[in-house]
């Protein structure tokens, strides 16, 4: 053999052996992914058909985020061969990274390529993914540093309660599946809870999710540095012109040194808004950690106009058309008090109401003096009432309380009969409690109204004597099923007085109307005396209603069906309930529900339209 040929063969053998040996020195770190390479002419492809085979939820994730899918389906002709090869090679690693966010740490990935046999020059890419089992959380360690830890160790109530709330807020527990989104949400919830509790500078000093691929488990570890607890030191109030600083401080309803929680700030802001003195309110915390022990709460206000006139026109099925003028003076006689006067003229009701009420004082108590004159006409009688009251009220987020002494006189003139009058002096308590998901448009919760009174009465045709009055009303709201909402109401009242003693008509009870028994006119149900309906000593009404949105396109418009029952009488023994059934439409407007009902009265055997706006507490 030619020596030159021997040398060439020997060199080729050495090179082949050397290359094989080098490959064995650097084994692949991941299992090889089988990729079938299409014929060379596939580089002239005009379209690409990409098929992703995986469980539904994961398939959508891959199709949404994989570069291969997005570019291949959007503009395959614009991707040259080298870039296409790079996308193919990077796909398995990108699949693994995406699946790890869903808790799959050992997926099997297979990718194949082929070219079509026809002239369409279509390249087919099939990506098949078997994710395996989703990893589970094996252990959760939540440690807290800073003032929460020191306070809890010392037995401080706020720190102890906050630490318990942080552990409750962390939503992931051993045994739960691991997902990156759930892990991020759980961390965010803990951080938000710490900051809302007054540890405004709280931050994580360390977090980790340690994956054991062999055991398919994840261990979670968090260290929260709470930073200092912010305690109330100074109210920095700006924007006051006419009103007193003390009024704003009273509305804060908290003492120096109290932890400045998110709830404290929001409740303070809500009380300022409800006080009726300010057009705009903003309450924020100065988060300077150096001032945490004596934190500044910034209160920025813009006062409402001192005087406001309001003209109104309206209609209700109870009292017909009405026109009103109201004047509000928020700084009467230069004192921290507001005066309100309202005159209303209507078909069935004409009235004047006036009140002077102090701005909120310590513990939100306010003194008041007020009076009213009302003329109310029904189908059976006309009642003229005058009232003067002096009292003290307290309004909080859930509870309203009013204590007052009242002098009241009424003159009742039945149709075709002689008029009679009565006068009473009494001490009274009115209370209202509410626990609602939304005070304007409630769908869950309850309200309770309670009235108690004790006094002495005298009539021009009766004896003098003592009396007592009780009244209660409870309303409940509850979702029923997926789209129905239920509402139920129970109302009871009783006046206790000796035989021969009468009280003013406003102290007695009548039923009928929008918020009573629908299907009957306003105040048309009660004991009949001399052919006319009068007020009764006993009252009982009840109602149940089911409503739901009429269509998904009009979620604020609801249809309703309801059943009402009740009456008023001179005793519960003689009380014979009447019934009203009907259907209605509700528009849940931003200022309250507008209701239009048609109800059929079992006693009158007639239908009646009822119209009202707002909710009654």
What does this structure look like?
It is a single chain. The chain has 617 residues and is an alpha+beta fold. It has five domains: 40-130, membrane protein fhac (Ubiquitin-like (UB roll)); 136-225, membrane protein fhac (Ubiquitin-like (UB roll)), CATH 3.10.20; 232-303, membrane protein fhac (Ubiquitin-like (UB roll)); 306-356; 416-613, Porin. The chain contains nine helices and 27 strands. It has helices at residues 3-25, 56-65, 67-74, 81-100, 147-153, 157-169, 180-196, 245-252, 262-274, and strands at residues 47-53, 108-115, 122-130, 136-145, 203-212, 217-225, 232-238, 278-285, 295-303, 307-316, 320-329, 337-346, 349-358, 365-377, 381-395, 399-414, 420-436, 445-459, 465-480, 484-496, 528-529, 532-533, 538-551, 554-569, 578-589, 592-601, 606-613. The strands form five sheets. Strands 10-11-12-13-14-15-16-17-18-19-20-23-24-25-26-27 form a 16-stranded antiparallel β-sheet, with no helix packed on it. A three-stranded mixed β-sheet has the order 1-3-2, with helices on one face. Strand 12 and strand 13 (349-358) form a beta hairpin. The chain is elongated and about 105 Å long. The model is unreliable at 1-44 (pLDDT under 50).
């Amino acid at each position: 053999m030619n020596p030159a040929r021997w040398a060439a063969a020997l060199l080729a053998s050495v090179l082949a052996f050397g290359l094989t040996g080098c490959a064995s020195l650097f084994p692949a770190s991941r299992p090889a992914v089988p990729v079938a390479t299409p014929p060379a002419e596939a580089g002239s492809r005009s379209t690409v058909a990409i098929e992703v085979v995986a469980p539904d939820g994961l398939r959508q994730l891959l199709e949404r985020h994989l570069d291969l899918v997005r570019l291949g389906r959007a503009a395959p002709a614009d991707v040259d061969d080298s870039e296409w090869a790079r996308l193919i090679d990077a796909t398995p690693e990108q699949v693994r990274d995406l699946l790890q966010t869903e808790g799959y740490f050992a997926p099997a990935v297979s990718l194949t390529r082929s070219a079509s046999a026809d002239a369409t020059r279509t390249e087919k890419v099939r990506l098949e993914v078997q994710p395996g089992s989703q990893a589970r959380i094996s252990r959760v360690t939540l440690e807290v540093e800073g003032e929460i830890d020191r306070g809890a160790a010392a037995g401080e109530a706020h720190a102890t309660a906050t630490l318990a709330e942080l552990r409750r807020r962390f939503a992931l527990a051993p045994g739960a599946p691991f997902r990156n989104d759930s892990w991020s949400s759980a961390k965010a919830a803990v951080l938000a809870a710490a900051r809302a509790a007054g540890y405004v500078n709280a931050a994580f000093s360390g977090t980790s999710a340690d994956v054991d691929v062999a055991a398919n488990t994840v261990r979670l570890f968090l260290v929260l540095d709470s930073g200092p607890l912010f305690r109330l030191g100074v109210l920095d109030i700006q924007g006051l012109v006419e009103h007193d600083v003390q009024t704003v401080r009273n509305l804060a309803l908290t003492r120096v040194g109290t932890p400045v929680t998110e709830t404290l700030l929001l409740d303070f802001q809500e009380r300022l808004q409800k006080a009726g003195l300010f057009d705009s309110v903003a309450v924020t915390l100065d988060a300077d950690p150096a001032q945490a022990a004596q934190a500044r709460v910034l209160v920025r206000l813009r006062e409402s106009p001192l005087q406001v006139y309001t003209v109104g026109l309206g209609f209700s099925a109870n009292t017909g058309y009405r026109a009103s003028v109201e004047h509000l003076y928020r700084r009467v006689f230069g004192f921290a008090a507001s005066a309100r006067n309202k005159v209303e003229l209507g078909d069935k009701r004409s009235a004047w109401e006036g009140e002077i009420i102090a701005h909120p004082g310590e513990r939100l108590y306010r003194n008041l003096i007020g009076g009213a004159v009302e003329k109310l006409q029904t189908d059976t009688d006309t009642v003229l009432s005058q009232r003067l009251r002096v009292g003290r009220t307290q309004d909080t987020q859930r509870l309203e309380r009013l204590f007052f002494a009242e002098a009241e006189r009424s003159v009742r003139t039945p149709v075709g009969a002689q008029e009679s009058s009565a006068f009473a002096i009494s001490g009274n308590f009115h209370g209202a409690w509410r626990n609602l998901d939304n005070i304007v448009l409630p769908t869950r919760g309850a309200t309770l109204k309670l009235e108690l009174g004790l006094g002495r009465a005298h009539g021009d045709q009766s004896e003098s004597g003592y009396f007592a009055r009780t009244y209660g009303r409870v309303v409940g709201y509850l979702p029923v099923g997926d789209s129905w909402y239920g509402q139920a109401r129970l109302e009871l009242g009783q006046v206790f007085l000796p035989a021969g003693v009468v009280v003013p008509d406003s102290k007695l009870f009548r039923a009928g109307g929008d918020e009573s028994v629908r299907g009957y006119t306003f105040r048309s149900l009660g004991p009949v005396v001399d052919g006319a309906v009068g007020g009764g000593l006993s009252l009982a009404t009840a109602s149940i209603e089911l409503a739901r949105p009429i269509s998904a396109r009009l979620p604020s418009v609801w249809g309703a069906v309801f059943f009402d029952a009740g009456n008023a009488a001179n005793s519960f023994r003689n009380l014979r309930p009447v019934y009203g059934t009907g259907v209605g439409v509700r528009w849940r407007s931003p200022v309250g529900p507008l209701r239009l009902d048609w109800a059929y009265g079992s006693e009158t055997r007639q239908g009646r339209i009822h119209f009202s706006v707002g909710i009654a507490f």
